[in-house]
Amino acid sequence: MSSADLSLEHHEFGEYVRRWLAENAPPPPPERLPITPIEVMTIGQRDYLQAWQRKCYDAGLVGADYPKDYGGHGNIGFQRIANQEMNRAGVPFLINIVGLSMAAPTILQHGTEEQKRKFIPGCLSGEEIWCQGFSEPGAGSDLANQRTSAVRLGDEWIVNGHKVWTSLGHFAKWMILVTRTSKDDKYNGLTYFLCPIEGHPGVTVRPLVKITGETGFNEVFFQDVRIPDAYRLDDVGKGWAVAMTTLLAERGASEGAGSGGGGGESAIRDLIALARGTWRNGLLAADDPVTRDAIMKRAIVAEGLRQNAKRARVPALCDHPMRLPLQQKLTGSEFQQDNARLGVEIAGAHSTLYKRDPRAPQAGHWPLAFLNSYGNTIAAGTNEIQRNILGERVLGLPKSK
User: Fold this and answer.
1) Catalytic residue at 250?
2) Does residue 311 share a domain with residue 350?
3) How far apart are CA 149 and CA 280, in angstroms?
4) Which of its termini does the chain have fewer beta carbons within 10 Å around, N or C?
5) What separation in angstroms does the CA of 250 have from each of 60, 98, 155, 213, 349?
6) What residues make up the domain containing 176?
7) What are 221's strand-pairing partners?
8) 39, 219, 250, 255: which is the annotated catalytic residue?
C-alpha cells in the first residue's frame, strides 16, 4: 500500500505514532540490551522490555489490527504503520516476539472463542511471554519427525519429551507446542497445544550457552506434564496444519501484532556511522570507494526487501501463497548476516574487540551481530531447507537426491 492509497485515518495514525514515539522515548535501559528478543537473558532486560511493550500496547501501537474482543484495537491496516514508525525511530524491540508474531496469529485463526479471549490479550500486552516448542534433538528442519508424545487421559493430555532451541523459554509463561498423538501417520499424527510452562509441574527449562556467551536459547524437558484438553488448539491430528500457520506467520506472511527495534534502514545508518568513524591507513573508511560501494549494495538490498514486503500485501502480485514469505525469511536473514559481515570488515582489527571492551567500535555490536546472525539463518527452517521448499513447491523443480 503506497502513501497515496492510505486513508485519512491511516495518515493521522502515522502522525500520531511519530509524535507519540518522540514524546515517549524510553529511558536508557538499566543494562545493555541484546540485539534481538531471542537473546534476552536477565531479569533486568526482561522487566525493562516488558514495561516498554505494555506502554506501546496501551498507546495503540501493538495489536492495532486485532479485534477489540480479543484485546486488540480494531484498526485494520494500522499495525504496519506502527511497525514502520517504530523501526524508523529505532526504539527498543518488543520482547514478546513469539507471542506477537506466532502465537497470536495462530490462535486467532485456529482458536476457539474462549481461547482467543483468554490468550491473545496477554500476547499483545507482553504480560504473558510465549515460547515455541517445535524443534527437538531429532526434529529440527524435519518438523514432522516429532517424538514428544501426548497421550489422552480423560479431559487431560500427558506429555513426555524434549524440546530444544527454545527462545525465551526461561521467561515464558506459555508455549506453543507440537506433539505426537499417533504413530500411525507422520503428519496427521500431530496435535498442537497451548502449554503452561512457568512453574508447571513436570516442566524443566535449562539454558543453552551460545557462541556469543548469551543464553537466550533453552532446552525444555516434559515429564508426565498434564495439559487440559481445553488448551488443545484445533482438532486432534491437525497439528501439522496449525504448525504451518505458525511458520507462515513467523516467516513474515502477516504483519504480526507489533515489532519495534531497528529494521533495514537503521542497519544501513549504523554501517554508515561505523565507516565515518573508522580510520584505516590514515583515511576514514567512508572515504574508501570500495567500502562506499559495499554499503550502497546493502542499501539496495534493503530497499528491495522493503518493496518486496509491499508486494506481498497485494494479492494480485502473489502468484504462490508461500513464495514471498519463504523468500522474505531467506533473503532477510541473509541480509542481516551480510550486513554484520560487512560491519566486521569495516571495523577491521578492531572487530576482535568484543562487547565488554570499552575500545570496541559501537560497543562491540558488529562481532556480536555476526555471531548472532547464524541463529536467524537456522530459525524457522534453515535457509538450505527454505531453498529446497522454494525450488520444489514453488518452482516445481524435482527433488534433489
Assistant:
1) yes
2) yes
3) 58
4) C
5) 22, 8, 31, 25, 36
6) 131-239
7) 162, 204
8) 250
Give the C-alpha separation, 247 to 250, whole Å: 5
Residues with Cβ within 8 Å of 61's Cβ and at least 6 positions away in sequence, in order, are: 17, 20, 82, 86, 258
Cell reading at 141 = 528442519
Q: Which of 82, 81, 38 is nearest to 62 (CA)?
A: 82
Average pLDDT, the chain: 88
Calculate the alpha carbon distances from 77 to 17, 36, 368 in Å. Answer: 14, 25, 35
CB-based burial, 20-35: b 16+ in 10 Å, e otherwise: bbeeeeeeeeeeebbb
On whether both 58 and 165 belong to a single domain, the answer is no
Look at the alpha carbons of 303, 306, 308, 314 in this order and tell me if their dihedral is positive or negative.
Answer: negative
CATH number of the domain bearing residue 352: 1.20.140.10
In angstroms, rounded to a whole number, what is the distance separating the alpha carbons of residues 140 and 124? 28
Say what the pTM is.
Answer: 0.85
| Calpha distance 391→399 (Å, rounded) | 8
Residues 172-203: pLDDT tens digits?
999 999 999 999 999 999 999 999 999 999 99
Q: Which three cell numbers stand for residue 149?
A: 508424545
